[in-house]
Amino acid sequence: MTHTHTPPDRQAILRWLVSDDPQEVAALWRLADLTRQCFVGDPVHLRGLVEVSNRCERNCLYCGIRADNRQLQRYLMLSDEILACAHKAVQVGFGTLVLQAGEDSAIEGQWVADIVRQVKEETDLAITLSLGERPDQDYQLWHAAGADRYLLRFETGNRELFDRIHPPLAGQSCDRLSILARLREIGYEVGSGVMVGIPGQSYDSLADDIDRFRTLDLDMIGVGPYIPHPDTPLASIGNRWALPPGEQVVNSVEMGYRVIALARLVCPQANIPSTTAFATLDGPVGRELGLQRGANIVMPNLTPQKYRRMYEIYPAKAASTEDAEQSCAAALRQIRALGRTVGTGRGDSPNLQKSI
Ligand code: SAH
Known about the structure:
The chain is α/β, with parallel strands linked by helices and 356 residues long. The protein has helices spanning 10-18, 22-39, 79-91, 109-122, 136-145, 159-165, 176-186, 203-216, 233-241, 253-266, 276-282, 284-292, 305-308, 324-337, 350-354, and strands at 43-53, 96-101, 126-130, 149-151, 189-192, 195-196, 220-221, 224-225, 297-298, 341-342. Helix 3 (79-91) links the parallel strand 1 and strand 2. The radius of gyration is 19 Å and the shape is globular. The structure holds S-adenosyl-L-homocysteine (SAH).
C-alpha cells in the first residue's frame, strides 16, 4: 500500500497552532485522525507504566518530584515489586512495560540492568525506559540487558528556556538532543516530546519543536500540557515569565491536542500516547479525545497503590486511586467505545521497522 502524505512545513505548523478558526481546527482533528488510521491503523496499544522511584537529584522548576521539594516522602520500589508489576502487565494483556523514575545516581545501572534482564527472561514484554539523563555506559548496559526503547522528552528546544527550567547539575551541561542521537546509535527505539504551555514558550519555538520531531524521525512522541505544581518554583514565577498574550503558548488541553495532531502529521508512523496529563485535566474524555486526534497509545498506571500519590510530578494526576485492574478495564472500555481495537503483541513502532 502506498500513501501520499506531505507533512506540514514549519509555516503550516505555526498556522495550525495559532488558528482561531473553528473550522480550520476541526479540519486538523480530521486530518490527524485519518493519518493515524492510514499509517498505524485502529489498534490502540497499551503500555503498563511503573513509576519505579520518585527520588531525584535534579531541580527542574516544573516538576513536583524535584530534589528541593521536601513535602514528599521518597521511595524506591523493590526489584521484586517491579517484577510483580511486569507479571501483572502480562496478566492484563499488555505488550510493553514502561519503567519511569526521577534521576538518582544512587540507583545503580547494574540494578536496573538486572531487572530488565529478569523481566525479559520471565516474559515477552517489550521494555521502555524513562529514567532521564544517565551516563552513556548505563544506556549501553540497559540496552545490552534487553531494554528496547527509551523515552526522554527534550521539553522545549529553546535552549535558553530549557536551561532555565531544567538547571544542569553542578559542573555538567546537558543536551538532551545529543542524548537522543546517542540512544538511537545504541539501538533503542527512541521517543521524545515537549510540554505545551511552559511559561516563556512561544508559538514560534513550539512550531520549531514540532518540526524537530520530524527531523529527529521519532518512533514515539509524548506530549502534554504543562500543569503547574504548587510546590515548584515555576508555579509562582510562571506569570512573570509568560510572554505577551498571542505569543505565549497556552497550557490548555486543546493546545495539547493540537500538538498531538501535528505530531501525527509530521511523524505519521510514530507511536503517540494520549498521555495522563490529558486525563488529569479533562477526565476520561481527555484520553478519548487524544485518541481521536492522532494518538494510538494508552499507558495505564501499574504502580502499586502505596507509591502512586508520591509520584506527583504534577497535582491530582489522573486515576491515582484506581488499581491496575480498574485502570486497565477503564482503558479497554474507552477503546471499544471509540470503535477502535486493542493492540496485541509488543506494538513496536512501524517507523522503526521501515528502517530495518
Ligand atoms: N526523570 C525523567 C522522567 C520525568 S517525568 C526525565 O526527566 O525524563 C516524565 C515527563 O513528565 C517529563 O519529561 C515532563 O515532560 C513531564 N512533566 C513533569 N512535570 C510536569 C508538569 N508539571 N506538567 C506537565 N508535565 C510534566
